[in-house]
Amino acid sequence: MTDGSSIQAPGTTVGERPIEAEGLSRRFGAVRALRDVSLRVERGEVHALLGPNGAGKTTLLRILTGLVDPDEGRLRILGIDPIGGAAQYVKRLVAVVPSGDRTFYLRISGLENLVFFGRLLGLPRSRAAERAWECLAAVGLTDAAKGRVGVYSHGMQKRLAVARALMADPPILLVDEATHDLDPQGARTVQGLVTGAVERGAAVVWATQRVDEIRGFADRVTFLDRGAVRFCGSVPQLMAVSITQRFAVHLRARDRGLDVLSVARDVVRSMGVVDPLSGEDREHLVLSLREGVILGDALAALTASGVQVLACRDERSGLEEAFLRLASKETS
Amino acid sequence: MNSATPAPARLETLLGELRKVPAFFRRDLLVAWSYRLAFFSDWINLIVQLVVFFYVAKLVDPRNLPSYNGVAPTYMEFVGVGIALTSFMQVALGRVVAAIRTEQLQGTLEALLVTPTSPATIQIGSVVYDLAYIPIRTVAFLVLAALFFGIHYFASGLLPVCVILLVFIPFIWGLGILGAAATLTFRRGSGIVGFGASVLTLGSGSYFPVQLFPGWVQAPAQLNPITIALDASREALIGGTGWSQILPAVLTLVPFMILSLAVGIITWRWALRRERRKGTIGLY
Q: Alpha-carbon distance A4 to A92, whole Å?
């Protein structure tokens, strides 16, 4: 690779899938970090890797970057086996935005950091400098380019990490918890930068535990929990997994003398449970229905017993519900 | 490896890797310059060391020292060569080992390893600045000693000493890579390296002649590569023997150099493979 333009890997064909993993397993001592995990990511796709802490997302990303070898399974990056002889070559095709902050040389400037990493990508010094300026401009760090990375804020370092990943305009981008502890604006900026890469045809794997950030952003989702794939499909399909059974309700008794909470508990006893949403408030409640109980039946029963239903909404979003449902599948 | 895997010419790959080395040099120069106080402290320490040994030399009877090509040195002349070579060794060894540790601690090791850069380039690149800086520091030490502390060295010995360094540096570097592998494996591997370096230095005749050791220590001490390098350097600088003593010393040091480099590189690769297998490369 001699410049920053998109590259077509020699030895690969346009039709090769960017990432194709089958049956990847990895064990760390007694802990099975990954169990028979398969992943397929297409060009121009944001593939979210969703899961709670310890699900195996980072292990999977580390296998994709060649930092960790799988114990079992088959992996192809644009048709090439990255384990073994082609490891260095495959690294030219994959860029990483790591989750941690400390991945730069803090004593030197953001510009010098990017030029250094650019040169490790094989760019000549002048092209690396030129490309570094372009990427710094893309992430809005031109003004801070010559400042030491040590004085950069958390968000600035994250944007610099994205800039580094974009230096070679890679066909594959692996992003690990990139927006974790960024403010909403910073998170949106990072997402926007990644979207730009996707529009240029890159395949993106976006590891996160935040369900809210994949809506309207990810094309497909693989849900990992305890090292195993629990779900793989589109975001709407993921939402379909959720059958909300918990609702935040605002109730009021028609007869002011009635204790709404006691009445509601009495009425829905056979259908589920009712708890206060917070402390002493006896009108804002959480209604948790048993599996198979229809919400309308519960609300009708409450209305029939002299309770007005002023508002009712899902206590959690559909995605959050799906997340919890999938994450708790094994324990239940 | 997939049959469709590209196989760029080895030479092209090698040249591509070599072109990355100056980037490491620039990075480390900028980092070193950002620590200006430490940069200047190093030079102040060098001068302090000279002053200390200048006064210690007044206590040492030169008759206890060996002569070189018939020239009886003062202790300052004797120890000056010892300090130059051992401080060279300690700094070089320490930095080769510390380079990887530092990358681990500051979190940049993984960032380096995910780039298409071979581990050997990372290892070479991490020390290239020191390998350039330390010889300058060593020569400056000898020049300062000669100019301000009344030491007489044969200028004709400087070039032969550089040739000694040409085989001595890879020997030290091999030990350093071994230490780096130990650091990668045991995290606190620098202790092992420090111990090894101390034993080698103590038995090298850097600060006192090996002839003062008991007989059973003298024999292995004569086989110490540092002793060999020191003796040849002293012959050239103090005795003014020019090139005549250099060739045998170089020929003796070459097998040590090859062994040290081979063991270092094999161990380093093994350590890296082990970390990949264990998945603990970035842990410290």
A: 11
What tens digit of pLDDT does each residue of A61-73 get? 999 988 888 999 9
Residue B276 has its nearest CB partner, among A12, A68, A88, at: A68
Kindly report the pTM of this predicted structure: 0.75
Partner-chain contact A69 B276, CB within 8 Å:
yes
- How far apart, in whole angstroms, are the C-alpha atoms of residue A175 and residue B110? 14
Listed residue (B44, B2, B14) closest to B141, CA to CA:
B44
Domain that holds residue B216: 20-278
CB proximity under 8 Å: A 108-137 to B: 108, 112, 115-117, 119-122, 124-125
- Distance (Å, whole) CA A57 – CA A60: 5
Q: Does the beta-carbon distance from B116 to A89 stay under 8 Å?
A: yes
Task: Give CA separation, A171 vs A5, A203, A294, B235, in Å.
Answer: 10, 6, 48, 60
Q: Is residue B4 part of a domain?
A: no
How many domains is chain B built from?
Answer: 1
Asked if B106's CB is within 8 angstroms of A105's CB, the reply is yes
Direct distance between the N- and C-terminal alpha carbons of chain A, in angstroms, rounded to an integer = 51
Are B83 and B51 in contact, with CB atoms under 8 Å apart?
Answer: no
pLDDT of amino acid A251: 92
Residues in B touching A85 (Cβ below 8 Å)? 1, 5
The two tokens of residue A21 are 């993993």
Residue B189 is assigned to a structural domain of this protein: yes
Q: Can you tell me the distance from the alpha carbon of B139 to that of B153, in angstroms, rounded to the nearest whole number?
A: 12
Chain B residue at shortest CA distance from A60 = B279
How far is residue A63 CA from its own chain's centroid? 17
Domain-embedded: residue B82: yes
Quote the CA–CA distance of A67 and A86 in Å, as a whole number: 14
Please say whether the beta carbons of A330 and A225 come within 8 A.
yes
Residues 64-103 of A with CB under 8 A from B: 65-69, 76, 79-81, 84-86, 88-89, 91-92, 94, 96, 98, 100-103
Q: In what order do the strands lie in the sheet with A228-234?
A: A94-97, A172-176, A203-208, A46-50, A220-225, A228-234
Residues in chain B: 284
Identify the weakest region by mean pLDDT among A46-50, A260-264, B188-192.
B188-192
Angle (CA) A94 A100 A102, round 5°? 100
Q: Directed axis angle between helix B190-202 and helix B225-237, to 10°?
A: 50
Q: Could you read off the pLDDT of B15-24 as tens digits, one per residue?
A: 889 999 999 9
B12 belongs to a structural domain = no
Label residue A4 left, alpha or beta by phi (over 0 means left) and psi (-120 to 50 means alpha): alpha
